[in-house]
Amino acid sequence: TPQSTTMDPGPGGPNTATTPSLDTGSVITGTRSGTSRGSRKSRRSKLIKSKVDKHMVIFDPPGEDDESEYPGVTIVEDEEGVIEAFKKINYYMTPRMSQATREIFVSFGGSNMSRQGFISLIAITDGFGITHIFDVITLEDALWDNGMKDFLEIAYNEKVVFNTRGAKDCLFNCHGITYKGMFDLRIIEVMERGKIKTYARLPHEQAVKGGISKQIVSKKYLFTEDEMISYYVKDASSLRSVGSELDEKVWRSRKNGVDDKCIKWMVEYQKFIITLWKNFKFGDEKKDLLYWISSEIYNAMFFDKEVRTYDVYEENDCTPQNVCCYLTTDQPLGGVRCEMCMRMLPVSEFTKEMLLKKVPMGCRLCKLIEVDGIKVSKPPVRIARKKKKKKKKKKKKTKSKEKKVRIEGEEDESSSSSSSSSSSSSSDDDDTKSKKSGKSGKSGKSGKSGKSGILKKNETNKK
């Protein structure tokens, strides 16, 4: 029988100070001796733990008239609150192989998040729906020294985020923190696009494979927040628009604490990440490794640059080259720097003329952006609405065709009946004439006239 392990109930349980055991021979790691499947209780506990993530309660902000606090959300503005918050968050700072809920959701709020901007708030939501919003401006060093720096620099806790390239650049250049261990849903969605259920038709493009042209799902561009909601959220009205950012003054102002607009924005953004995360499946070691490496490469695009340009070639929605790891984590090494996007890329991205320094250096993606321009975002159309409209049109067309056929048939029948009635009337006139001729003539003549009458009948029938 496998060795039994005692699991920590988590931050909401009675023993919050204890940490989960790290026994490598436990049932959770997948090692078994013989063909034992464990007791009924252990199997049932596994099913319950696997369903905890998907049935997690998502907090809702109050309405405009409601003056109560946000349920499940605590705003941390002093050093004591930071220490108490990280007593619960430390549960996720241990290796993830023996935790019931592994994922933790992180988002950053600020203005122009880069080496030239700043971070105002950091929101952390655990697997049980408890959220802490940390005020970076008021806490300053008290936040980084009491657990936040260690939490962000740990690489083996699954921090689920969405497009944190600018936040990583700001954390390193402004605060000296190397942000690691993120699972970026924006790059994971491109890797799994076409394999997940959507509520609108995905963009397609024409491709040639084996000499045959086919329409395949386009992975040329990355989706924005609003596009993600329209494609992967069933009830789009449950989420407010998270794409509109606030002004720099609103993020910096601390007259009566943190502004309510900033808190609402952070709450809605966390809610957006959680609802989007429910569409993906995590748990496979090979896939999780590919997701992790791809997210690390994608979020290090601005962080690795010595000089940033802040132009179209750097900040765009195009899927970057040599970032997505579909089969292996090995990516070609970059030996040549592109003069447009300032990235180190392999030699295969450039032409011979560029390598001989006859033409300015520019990778394939930057040349396409220069010619075609930037993607113009179009609102996607829901699949269900299109199908209903098509069915209605088809029914109307079939009914009109049937009506036309019936009218033509009725005209044919009426014309045939009129022709038959005229022929019958002519035949009756011939019979009366033959009878009169038979009575007036003699017997020989009557026989001839009778024969002639029969011949006339046959002729009329033929006509």
Task: Write a concise synopsis of the structure shown.
Helix content is 42%, strand content 10%.
Q: Give a quick account of the main beta sheet: strands, pairing sense, barrel closure.
A: 6 strands, mixed
Termini separation: 101 Å
Mean pLDDT: 74
Overall outline: extended
Low-confidence stretches: 1-37, 49-68, 397-416, 433-448
Query: What is the count of helical runs?
Result: 14
Number of strands: 10
Radius of gyration: 39 Å
* Structural classification: alpha/beta
Helix content class: 40-55%
Main features:
six-stranded mixed beta sheet; 42% helix; alpha/beta; extended; 463 residues; two-stranded antiparallel ribbon
Describe what this molecule looks like in 3D.
With 463 residues, this protein is of the alpha/beta class. Helix content is 42%, strand content 10%. A 6-stranded mixed β-sheet has the order 1-4-3-2-5-6, sandwiched between helices. A two-stranded antiparallel ribbon has the order 7-8. Helix 2 runs parallel beside helix 4 (141-153), helix 6 (185-191) packs across helix 10 and helix 13 (383-440) runs antiparallel to helix 14 (443-462). The protein is extended and about 130 Å long.
